[in-house]
Amino acid sequence: MGVASSGIDDDLYTNSGDSISSMQLVGDIYRELGRKVSVKDVFIHRKARRIFDNVLSHEAGRRLPLLPPLKADQGLATGIAPLLPPIQTWFTFKKLQRPEYCNHCFAIRTPPLDVGRLTEAVRLLQLRHDALRMRIETRNSQSVQTFVPTIRPVEIATLRIRSLDGESSKPTEERELLTRQSCFNIAEGPFFTIVYVHGYEDGSARVWCSFHHLIMDTVSWNIIRSDLQMLYQGADLGMKSSSVQQ
Question: Which PANTHER family match (predicted)?
């Protein structure tokens, strides 16, 4: 949360907590402790000690405030949904010449990875986050978001940062990444691309990601990074939260 330390009696929201960090906390509690806590529980109780006491009280059968669990759809979101204001509605009204080229990128530094496992992790990520299967269509002169029932496999491109003779391939890399992030298709997909970059002198690699602004904001980067890492490692992400369609 951007603070040096936070005690069990400190208010999480006073310490720069927000809805995103609350979602991450709920996920961590479930994965590490096997306890179900909702984001609303975190918002109500706000302090680690009170959240802990509330969980124990609920398990002991005492009637302390505990909100009912979120009934999130665990299947794939399909069909249509209205655009989400303000970003999606603003975007469609802009009439941009190149609407596919409105994205943001980040790179995750990693040890060497298995591209096959990374590809499977990305496929599971699409199952987890319905927005990664979203399309924008025009129906009855209105733009709507649709969710396709099938997953189109995302090809993980690989780039070597240095050739075998030691020559830098940075210009080629930059051209390839520019091409990758400018070929999105908002009507047919995909809305994102991932490239595995390797060959760094220290033996490290990068998972380079580009997502269209229609499906993700910069606040969500850490959620995607964390989920992708856990899926690559074979971990269970637990129950889905409410989908963008809900």
Answer: FATTY ACID SYNTHASE, NONRIBOSOMAL PEPTIDE SYNTHETASE
AA identity, residue 83 = L
* Residue with more model confidence, 205 or 61: 205
Which pLDDT band holds residue 168 (cuts at 50, 70, 90)? Answer: low
Q: Report CA-CA distances (Å) from 84 to 76, 141, 216.
A: 19, 17, 12
For tokens 């509330």, name the residue: 54
The residues, any chain, with a CB within 8 Å of residue 193's CB and separated by 6 or more, are 154, 157, 180, 181, 183, 184, 209, 210
Contact indicator for 34, 22 with CB cutoff of 8 Å: no
The dihedral over CA atoms of 32, 35, 41, 46, expressed in degrees to the nearest 10, equals -40
Mean pLDDT across 88-110: 84
**For residue 31, what are its two tokens?**
């994965």
* pLDDT score recorded for residue 57: 75
Q: Is the peptide bond before 85 cis (omega within 30 degrees of 0)?
A: no
Say how far apart CA 139 and CA 135 lie, in whole Å: 12
CA distance 198 to 23: 32
pTM above 0.90, yes or no: no
Who contacts 52 (Cβ-Cβ below 8 Å, separation ≥6)?
8
CA–CA separation, 29 and 6 (whole Å): 16
Burial category of 145 from C-beta neighbours within 10 Å (exposed 0-12, middle 13-18, buried 19 and up): buried
